[in-house]
Design a protein that fits this description.
- The chain is mostly helical.
- The protein is built from 15 helices and no strands.
- The protein has helices spanning 26-53, 57-60, 75-80, 86-91, 101-132, 138-148, 154-166, 173-177, 185-195, 200-208, 213-224, 226-242, 245-250, 259-268, 277-306.
Amino acid sequence: MTTTTHPVTDTSQRPAVHKPRRPIPWGKIAAWTVMVIFLFITMFPFYWMLRTALSSNNALGTDPGSLLPVGLNTGGFERVFGMQDVETAISQGGSGASINFWRYLLNSVIVATSITVVQTFSCAMAAYAFSRLHWKGRDTVFMIFLGSLMIPQIFTLLPNFILIKNLHLVDTLLGIMLPTLFISSFAIFFLRQFFNNISREVEEAALIDGASKVRVFFTLVLPLSSAPLATLALLTYMTAWNEYFWALMVSYTDQSRVLTVALGVFRAQAPGTGPDWSGLMAATLVAAAPMLILFALFAKKIVNSIGFSGIK
């Protein structure tokens, strides 16, 4: 009987296998470096506002280049929220000027919310008319709407002001809202492009079943367009919230003054001691906080909707 023996191989004699070295991803490293630099440049103003808001006005001049708060305190925020009297504010380097923050915040919320709700709904109806309804001169009217996007806002300020004055709406919240309350050419164009992607077969099936155009709009088109409508509403809210020049033209008292205008007035009220930079930066941060939170919550939805992913 013969036995077969297998040669024992000595693994130590095998030639070493070297894995190919991965090339250094210089391109990816450069891209990340550029992104970090842009992120730093973008975020630095917000940090500087926070640093100034947490500093003492008396100490700011002693070390203006410091990256950390100088004379750390929360006096600026206390003055914004009305938690500090004039004597204390002046002792901490404040100007002594006051700001009716909650009143201005309420005015801004009323103006931005009203414009967002009314404009989004009216522009959705107009976009549906341009997209799905057939009527004479539709394309011509739509081109006129697109052409209005090319007109700078400065050209419409004076005619709008004369109109608001003749309507006796100067120094009212309605006077601030009215020029942009109903129609936005960009909003109509934005929604029309999305409505064009909605399946016409689905709409025709609903019409065959006896649904009217109005019912199709409310029960079919609007629910299918929830993502672009939400995006448009958020962009409209941010634009209305940040509006400054028109609000400055038509509001003169606390009853109609919005937060952006109030911040400018607060800075202008500074007496000979100079602006209350700590309080001004604190008020600006608080005013910007709602927009930053909204954008952080809905940033992904905005990007997806602007890409017109639409209905597959």
